[in-house]
């Protein structure tokens, strides 16, 4: 019985996901779409760690066969490139494309439904659409539906077609995007921008304070929507959704947003504000009663950087972590693979109070842990305010926000939000080249202006080729 | 002065009650595409969802958005009752923050419900006040029947409806099919064949795949 237990523990250790795998993979395949501005998640090789998918199992069979498990991270990193080479010629998911082709094209080598598509134009002429190239008339209809919420009329469509040149039609499309993004449909209450924001803010009607109050009014998340809409419109820097030290007031009929220094509904002082991460709603709902609010950190990581730790995405293990200051058992092997990233990511929230104390509700409180949680665990007051994000140490949450906002992950996540909204799905492998070019322009050329990003997405073939 | 004003009023009044409404312009009927028509390489067809669907139906049929469809006469079909079935979100109550991304089993039923409601309202209004009819204008009636199913007025209103809803001229196959429907309804036991034809044609166009996807 005891022997069986030892074998089980060894097996569990042997099967543990390896956070260095993503960086080793990308060192070997730097041009893979999985590696442009990101790294493959654990799910690339695992169903859910420790269980491997077909591709992961093939690698495992070629990774120092016969050597005792678990391999050290150093040995694993050294041996993984050879194991990857060994499986390049295989087709582990049986979809007809070798693993190497799938790695190069950005499809999944463990999913038969994900394989490279080589689209070709087929059939005779189509009287309604230019099915093999960018169709301006098709794009015009889509632009009005996507940004204004209604199709053009027959007369408007004829007038568009009658414009003197394609250049003129393109200029008109740009003007229509700017006109429509000023409408209620785009930026009003429950409009398209609010829809992009819902999964980030995660409102709960019963806890709403202020306008449209719920049964237990705790905080007004319409402030969060207002800041979101402000940062995503006009000539404004979208990164301020994470870094703003100001608030935004919403006026109605028609909807107008204006920047303000303070709002009665918000309590964090200006020196400790970090955009929507420190609003009354975020602290109420994501910090709530917790000493170390891992939920707040993981939600911001997911919502604004597109990295879901629950799906083993965005793991950057920090040496000697997790320390498990709050004695939750997260140092156990099964937990440590994620918590070595998550816990240092959460430390900068240590002084942001949720609703555990009415006196300090939704404020920055120096020595918060010492004041309110000192008896929860023996080492809990040792939780530092310094944290780590993307392997970069940060002094506090504002430092966290700066690194996050300037990261490729933020640009990719923001571009993905609008790509999904306008194209209708997350970027597909055959759209990857356009997608990468688009987020890079958003970051470098447009300095994070969403308005310019929208124009760029409309110009892609993914949007305008029927 | 008073006499001139009276005469003007008489002329205007006479115009309102006596001049028959002009039918829509005749359609520039297009030849129906054959099976070999060029197919989309991407196939990225998107369902309009609640807001766009209602906005488009309302605009095409010149109804207010809140007139398009209500349940029990007071709850908006798309915005409230069937919002999620139409791919909408419901973030504040059940916490449905993102649309499901796929159409549900009940989605076609709701689309049909909305199309039928809007078309019934448009047809009712056009029949009640033919002088101000929007879509079905200039269609001569013989009691509850169409006066002439072979006349030029039917293709004209089919063209009007197609331009309003599908943003194009009708195909020859569509015109002949809808005219044939008028004849079949006329020959049936339908109590109000003209109204039934108008509703059916409107419903067919508004609930078509081409109308509800983009």
Give a brief rundown of this model.
The complex is a heterodimer of chains A (466) and B (214). Chain A is mainly α. Chain A is 44% helix and 5% strand.
Provide tags for this entry.
heterodimer; A: 466 residues; mainly alpha; two-stranded antiparallel sheet; 44% helix; flat; disordered N terminus; B: two-stranded antiparallel ribbon; 8 helices; globular
Record field, number of beta strands of chain B? 4
Mean pLDDT of chain B: 91
Rounded mean pLDDT of chain A is: 92
What is the count of helical runs of chain A? 21
End-to-end Cα distance of chain B: 58 Å
Number of helices of chain B: 8
- Rg calc of chain A: 25 Å
| Total discrete domains of chain B | 1
* Contiguous runs where pLDDT drops below 50 for at least 5 residues of chain A: 1-15
In N-to-C order, the SSE pattern of chain A is HHEEHHHHHHHHHHEEHHHHEEHHHHH
> How would you write the strand order of the largest sheet of chain A?
1-2
Using the CA coordinates, give the radius of gyration of chain B: 20 Å
Number of strands of chain A: 6
Give your account of this protein's structure:
The complex is a heterodimer of chains A (466) and B (214). With 466 residues, chain A is mainly alpha-helical. In chain A, helix 13 crosses helix 14, helix 14 packs across helix 15 and helix 18 crosses helix 19. Chain B is mainly alpha-helical and 214 residues long. Chain B is 49% helix and 4% strand. In chain B, helix 6 runs antiparallel to helix 7. About 7% of the residues of chain B have low confidence. Classes of the chains: A mainly alpha (466), B mainly alpha (214). At the A-B interface, helix 6 and helix 10 of A face helix 2 of B.
């Amino acid at each position: 019985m005891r022997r069986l237990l030892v074998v089980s523990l060894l097996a569990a250790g042997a099967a543990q996901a390896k956070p260095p795998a993503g960086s080793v993979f990308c060192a070997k395949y730097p041009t893979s779409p999985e590696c442009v501005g990101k790294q493959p998640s654990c799910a690339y090789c695992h169903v859910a760690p420790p269980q491997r998918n077909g591709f992961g199992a093939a690698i495992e069979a070629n990774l120092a066969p016969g050597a005792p498990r678990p391999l050290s991270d150093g040995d694993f990193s050294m041996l993984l490139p050879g194991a990857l080479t060994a499986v390049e010629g295989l087709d582990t998911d049986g979809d007809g494309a070798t693993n190497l082709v799938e790695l190069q094209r950005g499809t999944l080598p463990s999913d038969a439904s994900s394989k490279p598509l080589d689209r070709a134009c087929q059939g005779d002429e189509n009287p309604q659409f230019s099915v093999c190239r960018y169709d301006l008339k098709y794009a015009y209809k889509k632009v009005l539906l996507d940004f204004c919420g209604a199709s053009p009329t027959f007369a408007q469509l004829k007038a568009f077609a009658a414009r003197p040149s394609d250049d003129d039609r393109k200029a008109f499309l740009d003007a229509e995007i700017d006109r429509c993004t000023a409408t209620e449909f785009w930026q009003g209450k429950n409009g398209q921008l609010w829809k992009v924001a819902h999964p980030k803010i995660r409102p709960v009607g019963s806890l709403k304070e202020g306008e449209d109050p719920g049964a237990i009014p705790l905080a007004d998340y319409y402030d969060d929507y207002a800041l979101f809409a402000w940062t995503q419109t006009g000539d404004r820097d979208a990164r301020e959704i994470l870094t703003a030290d100001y608030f935004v007031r919403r006026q109605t009929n028609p909807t107008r947003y204006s920047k303000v220094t303070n709002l009665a509904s918000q309590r964090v002082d200006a020196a400790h504000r970090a955009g929507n991460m420190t609003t009354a709603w975020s602290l109420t709902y994501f910090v709530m009663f917790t000493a170390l609010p891992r939920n707040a950190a993981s939600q911001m990581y997911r919502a604004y950087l597109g990295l879901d730790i629950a799906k083993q995405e965005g793991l950057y293990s920090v040496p000697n972590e997790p320390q498990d200051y709050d004695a939750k058992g997260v140092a156990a092997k099964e937990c440590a693979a994620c918590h070595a990233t998550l816990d240092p990511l959460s430390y900068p929230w240590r002084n942001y109070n949720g609703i555990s104390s009415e006196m300090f509700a939704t404020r920055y409180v120096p020595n918060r842990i010492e004041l309110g949680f000192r008896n929860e665990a023996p080492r809990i007051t040792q939780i530092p305010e310094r944290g780590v994000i993307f392997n970069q140490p940060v002094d506090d949450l504002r430092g966290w926000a700066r690194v996050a906002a300037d990261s490729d992950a933020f640009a990719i996540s923001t571009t993905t939000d609008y790509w999904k909204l306008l194209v209708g799905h997350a970027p597909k492998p055959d759209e990857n080249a356009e997608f990468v070019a688009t987020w890079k322009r958003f970051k470098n050329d447009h300095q994070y202006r969403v308005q310019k990003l929208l124009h760029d997405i409309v110009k892609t073939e993914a949007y305008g080729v029927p | 002065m008073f006499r001139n004003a009276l005469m003007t009023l008489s002329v205007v009044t006479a115009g309102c009650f006596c001049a028959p409404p002009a039918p829509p312009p005749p359609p520039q009927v297009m030849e129906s595409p054959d099976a070999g028509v060029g197919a989309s390489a991407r196939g990225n067809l998107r369902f309009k969802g609640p807001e766009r669907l209602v906005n488009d139906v309302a605009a095409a049929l010149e109804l207010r958005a809140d007139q398009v469809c209500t349940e029990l006469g007071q709850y908006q079909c798309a915005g409230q009752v069937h919002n999620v079935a139409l791919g909408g979100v419901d973030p504040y109550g059940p916490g449905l923050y993102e649309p499901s991304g796929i159409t549900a089993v009940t989605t076609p039923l709701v689309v049909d419900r909305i199309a039928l409601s809007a078309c019934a309202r448009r047809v009712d209004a056009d029949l009640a006040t033919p002088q101000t009819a929007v879509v079905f204008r200039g269609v001569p009636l013989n009691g509850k029947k169409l006066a002439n199913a072979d006349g030029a007025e039917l293709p004209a209103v089919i063209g009007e409806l197609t331009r309003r809803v599908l943003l194009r001229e009708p195909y020859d196959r569509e015109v002949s099919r809808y005219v044939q429907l008028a004849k079949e309804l006329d020959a049936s036991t339908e109590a109000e064949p003209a109204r039934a034809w108008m509703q059916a044609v409107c419903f067919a166009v508004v609930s078509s795949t081409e109308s509800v996807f983009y």
